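Troubleshooting log. The previous structure file for this entry was overwritten by mistake, so regenerating from the original sequence record. Sequence copied from the archived sheet and checked twice against the printout by T.R.
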Amino acid sequence: MTGSLALYIAVMAGVTYLIRMLPFVIFRKKIKSRFVKDFLYYVPYAVLGAMTIPAVFFSTGNVISAVVGLAAALVLAFKGKGLLPVAAAGCIGAFVAEIVLKLI
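Regenerated output below.
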């Protein structure tokens, strides 16, 4: 068991190292292409969205309350509020929706 655990850790360390090292090896010169710059600028946001948005819909006991929380968070986010008020609005919206759904 410990041998396989050590192998798993070594493989993950290697993969993590490669992911962090490859951009330095591939992009040695300054990137001049506007398309590549724009693409690389939006990659973190796209990956973060792809990881979080599906999880939002399964974060509560009911999809409806999750959508209510998401809507509350989106409203404040589009109004330019900070991370803490947006997250708080999403949590409170989902919580209130759960209470209302249990009463119905």
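The two ends are 51 Å apart (CA to CA). Archived copy saved in two places this time.
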